[in-house]
């Protein structure tokens, strides 16, 4: 064996075995610490209202900012990972999350809480979570799908444990001391990051010819830098900067795909609209139960029930949707899950008894599992994989905007009417309308494409949606994962 081949064999050996499983364990903990954390914010809702004399709308901004930054900081995390690596990004995120929660324990106003717990902790959670997901792509090749599925169970574990721990600490120590303890707990993200040591890939040991697209992009960037440095004309420099900016936007925010691909446009708009109502039960369910006489510990248990059921249902949903029967039909499964999620809210409106609320949480959790398991599978079906990371950047940013404004607007409505039922009416409206919009639009688009293309549709390629407008390009059998793929979980 040649020296280069031996080096490649040695570099590839750590993947899918040995230390890779420790990295997977760290990724499970990371997802529980980061994505699961916002599930406990509803436990502090009434205490924060009383402490700062804040309205429902003002208090809900705290959790909305945290969730929005966690989802929308993907492009920034991608740049950070590309420049400094996954381990640095995870550990920086853990430090930011800890600093944010420790600072929150000393806040004197609700607006200060927006900055500390909302922005700083949300951004730190974004860095830790998304860099932790990215590093799995380096450590796993053969078992990559299994690794990501196992890592996602951390979200459900977080949903189960965070509310129970929060209610216990709140009863024993108050919200300020609880936030201080949370700062120490979130610092464990740095420990998880330390486990994720950089991996020397075979592709880095053996020189490879660059991809044509990347080679052209690098040449264009080099030419622009050269022109900008040597040209004495300000107009040429300004044009070069505009071109570089355009390339950056196209790389991280796929506006060209949004304009050209109708399937991606429909799906992105539908999910963004759906998110206006998706997060409302997580924020207001505990306050709603407490207002209607449910004991505080039982009210916190409701969110934990949702997370516990997700642990078992989400992997099953992912396996079911991967069956060949559902190939090309996953968007309809996703729409059905959103529709069921919206209809389940009427159970909560009918009665606030604890037994009824448990029934509501069970049905809501089943529907949420479908949404969480299918969100990115559908996106991968609609968009070519070589543009997936770019399409996901725009997708998560639009999603984060509606996640940000949904709960505060609903909180304003509750302040005006003094009726928590409007929380669930609003949630049902956005979820049901989004489900019908996506389902009907994709059905019409598929029929239109069938009538227009007819025999042009390749029948021997069942892995592609017929409504996808992006041309299929041959993909290499083995290629290194992207520097960063910013992925969120619902």
UniProtKB/TrEMBL annotation:
It is a multi-pass membrane protein. Residues 20-451 form the Major facilitator superfamily (MFS) profile domain. InterPro entries: MFS, MFS_dom, MFS_trans_sf, Proton-linked_MCT. GO terms for cellular component: basolateral plasma membrane. Residues 224-237 have a biased composition (Polar residues). It holds the Pfam family MFS_1. Keywords: Membrane, Transmembrane, Transmembrane helix. GO terms for molecular function: monocarboxylic acid transmembrane transporter activity. Signal peptide: none annotated. The chain crosses the membrane at residues 21-45, 61-81, 88-106, 112-139, 146-165, 177-196, 266-287, 299-319, 331-351, 357-379, 391-410, 422-445. Residues 473-483 have a biased composition (Pro residues). It is found in: Membrane. Residues 206-237, 451-490 are annotated as: Disordered. PANTHER family: MONOCARBOXYLATE TRANSPORTER, MONOCARBOXYLATE TRANSPORTER 6. This is MOT6 protein. It comes from Tricholaema leucomelas.
């Amino acid at each position: 064996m040649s020296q280069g081949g031996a080096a490649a064999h040695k570099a590839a050996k750590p993947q899918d075995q040995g230390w890779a499983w420790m990295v997977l364990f760290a990724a499970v903990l990371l997802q529980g610490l980061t994505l699961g954390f916002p599930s406990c914010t509803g436990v502090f809702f009434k205490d924060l209202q009383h402490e700062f004399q804040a309205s429902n709308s003002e208090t809900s901004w705290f959790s909305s900012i945290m969730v929005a930054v966690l989802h929308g900081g993907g492009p920034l995390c991608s740049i950070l990972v590309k420049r400094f690596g996954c381990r640095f990004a995870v550990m920086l995120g853990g430090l930011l999350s800890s600093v944010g929660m420790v600072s929150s324990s000393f806040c004197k106003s609700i607006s200060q809480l927006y900055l500390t717990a909302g922005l700083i902790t949300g951004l730190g959670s974004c860095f830790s979570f998304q860099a932790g997901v990215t590093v799995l792509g380096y450590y796993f090749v053969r078992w990559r799908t299994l690794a990501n599925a196992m890592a996602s169970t951390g979200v459900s574990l977080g949903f189960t444990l965070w509310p129970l721990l929060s209610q216990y600490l709140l009863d024993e120590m108050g919200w300020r001391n609880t936030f201080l303890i949370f700062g120490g707990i979130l610092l464990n993200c740095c420990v998880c990051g330390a486990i994720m040591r950089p991996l020397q890939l075979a592709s880095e040991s053996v020189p490879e010819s660059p991809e044509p697209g990347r080679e052209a992009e690098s040449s264009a960037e080099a030419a622009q830098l050269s022109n900008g440095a040597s040209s004495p004309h300000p107009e040429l420099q300004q044009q070069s900067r505009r071109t570089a900016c355009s390339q950056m936007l196209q790389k991280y925010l796929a506006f060209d795909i949004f304009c050209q691909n109708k399937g991606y446009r429909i799906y992105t708009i539908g999910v963004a609209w759906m998110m206006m109502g998706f997060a409302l039960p997580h924020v207001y369910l505990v306050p709603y139960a407490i207002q209607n006489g449910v004991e505080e510990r039982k009210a916190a248990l409701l969110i934990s029930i949702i997370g516990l059921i997700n642990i078992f249902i989400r992997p099953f949903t992912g396996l079911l949707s991967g069956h060949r029967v559902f190939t090309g039909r996953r968007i309809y499964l996703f729409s059905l899950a959103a529709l069921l999620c919206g209809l389940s809210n009427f159970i909560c409106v009918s009665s606030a008894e604890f037994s009824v609320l448990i029934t509501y949480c069970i049905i809501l959790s089943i529907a949420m599992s479908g949404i969480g398991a299918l969100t990115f599978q559908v996106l991968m079906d609609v968009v070519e994989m070589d543009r997936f990371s770019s399409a996901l950047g725009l997708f998560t940013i639009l999603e984060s905007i509606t996640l940000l404004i949904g709960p505060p607007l609903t909180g304003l409505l509750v302040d005006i009417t003094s009726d928590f039922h409007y929380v669930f009416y609003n949630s049902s409206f956005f979820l049901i309308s989004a489900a019908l919009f996506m389902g009907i639009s994709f059905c019409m688009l598929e029929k239109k494409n069938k009538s227009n293309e007819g025999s042009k549709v390749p029948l021997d390629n069942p892995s592609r949606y017929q409504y996808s407008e992006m041309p299929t390009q041959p993909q290499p059998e083995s290629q290194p994962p992207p520097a960063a793929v910013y992925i969120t979980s619902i």
